[in-house]
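Summarise this fold before class:
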Amino acid sequence: MDEEVGTGATPPPFRGAVHGDDLDAARDLYEAQYPGEGFRLDQLDRPFEYRYAAVGDGDVSLRTSEFHGSARGTADAVPEYVVSWLVDGHGTVDVGRDEVALQPLVPRIAPTRAYSFDFTDYRQRLVHVGAAHLERLAAERGDVTSGPVTFFHAAPVGEAALRRWRAVLSETTPVLLDLAAPPLLRAGANRRLALAVLETFPHEAGRASAVALAPGAPVAPGARRLALAVEYLHEHAHEPIGVADVARAADLSVRGLQVALQRALDVSPTVLLRQIRLDRVHADLSVATPETATVGSVARRWGFSHLGRFSASYHERFGEHPSVTLRS
């Protein structure tokens, strides 16, 4: 597992749960967890009950929310990135703007700005990732130079990306639930899940994201197409894609894609894809051990057949040889 350079100690883990049948107590809880305005809770035609539980630490936590009633209001932007999915019930986010009706068992990332919501009689699972943790990883990957990551919460997520998300969530959940897990093991699980957020959910990437948009402002067509191209590269990095595939997905010509990436990120599509795949190798080696994987098997999984050239590129990008990452 790689060292958590510059991140400080892993935050202390916590576990907590609260439940009851008092509307005022529920309102106080949810307003504290998701601050905003116009928060309204109502009882339906059945006894009111709520339950909220969380486990994890300040970097990543898993949460459950069960609410037998209706809840609506406006949530403020907070220093967290939240992925959620319904187990049952009904929920709509960003009401009146880029509305998303949540589907059972389909994860969605919450808007990264203030938004209105409307939920009724629901059970929900959530993953909270601290802003500082995710933004540091986004900067490491080259998604942003620094600062917030803007996610396109209404953009669809491909089935392949969702399968990878669920696999990472399944593999990291036992560690996150274990308050006695060694700090390095927990830090590795936190890192994998935060990286999975970046790899799964479409967001503005590279220097294109430095052109900040006011909340609700339309995205310039060129910037949106560039973002789509980068998102396609991240989502399909495990597939044998070519430049023409990326250009087609972003509704650009091959030449237009090359020029846009060169201007925005100072890279070609091929170089960016290689960097993304190197990052995937690094992430896999960081959580593997010499007993469970070899450098060659992981490199080949991500399309690197010439191990000498791969090792040199890896060392140039990460400052260490892949075998060192695997043994750390």
Notes: Residues 256 and 268 are 11 Å apart (CA to CA).
